Amino acid sequence: MFRDFSTKLKPFYRRYRAKSAVDTRIIDSKISVSKEIGFIYYRIPKAANSTVFYSLYRNIVGADVSNMDNLSVLKHSFFDKPSELSSSDMKLEGDYKHFSFVRNPYNRFVSCYKDKVLGGEKRPFINKLLKRPLESEISIVDFLLFLENGGLYSNAHWAPQTSLIVKPLSEMDFIGRVENLSEDWQVLCELLKVKWPLYEYAPHKSTPEKQSQISEQVKTLDFRDRVLSLYKDDYLLLGYER
Fold it and tell me: Which of 174, 12, 188, 187 is nearest to 86 (CA)?
């Protein structure tokens, strides 16, 4: 708790005081600042985050990334974080281009379940909070119940996208959409005054087996409505149709 408070006292967060329920340290780890190019990228997990980050990195450095583990390390270490910006840096912050990429909230929720829960990575974390054996199976309905009962803001992969963008949405320079990724990447390049190709990096594509498991579990009539209610701010503020 103290470390979260100390992060909120940094110059960036004094300007953009997050009312988000997400821990500020989590938010800070998902924002990439490039002083060289002049941008602040609010990275939304499960919204083409790997592809956009990889494309930025590869175009800036001119080097490939051999595997997902190395990419994960780079996400946390290559660019500056907002908490590292000094008061002097913040005087130039208005010259930076603030951008993000977002995704249909329902599709992002399902993608998160496939990759992080059904895939096993976050299963121990969720089961620990649920006080169950760490490797217990978690159905997509169990996952939804976990989010509805206090887990929604516990991890950036399933937290609402609007809770991860601390700058007012109306002041963002650009918010692209996964559904229009190729075209919106070109819009971003024009904004940054660069001519960079987009390099797809999608290690988490779902298998037919995973999709079949999920399809059987979401046939209840109210399931989709419950997801829409959970992410109502994302639908309203990001302009997605419910």
Answer: 12
C-alpha span between 152 and 77 (Å, rounded): 26
pLDDT score recorded for residue 120: 84
Percent helix, strand and coil across the chain, each rounded to 5?
Answer: 55, 10, 40
Strand 97-102 relative to strand 39-42: parallel, antiparallel, unpaired? parallel
> Cα–chain-centroid distance for residue 59?
21
pLDDT-based confidence at residue 157 (cuts at 50, 70, 90): very high
Contacts of 55 (CB under 8 A, 6+ apart): 185, 196, 197, 198, 199, 201
DSSP per-residue string spanning 173-193: SEEEEGGGHHHHHHHHHHHHT
> Which residue spans within 6-57 are E strands per DSSP?
31-34, 39-42
163-177 tens-digit pLDDT: 999 999 999 999 999
Interatomic CA distance for residues 38 and 220, integer angstroms:
47
Residues in the chain: 242
- The answer to whether the beta carbons of residues 78 and 57 sit under 8 Å apart is yes
Tokens 């579990």 appear where?
Answer: 217
Which residue is listed with tokens 């908490």?
83
How far is it, in rounded angstroms, from Cα 13 to Cα 209? 43
Model pLDDT, residue 4: 67
pLDDT at 215: 62
- Of residues 130 and 62, the one with the higher pLDDT is 62
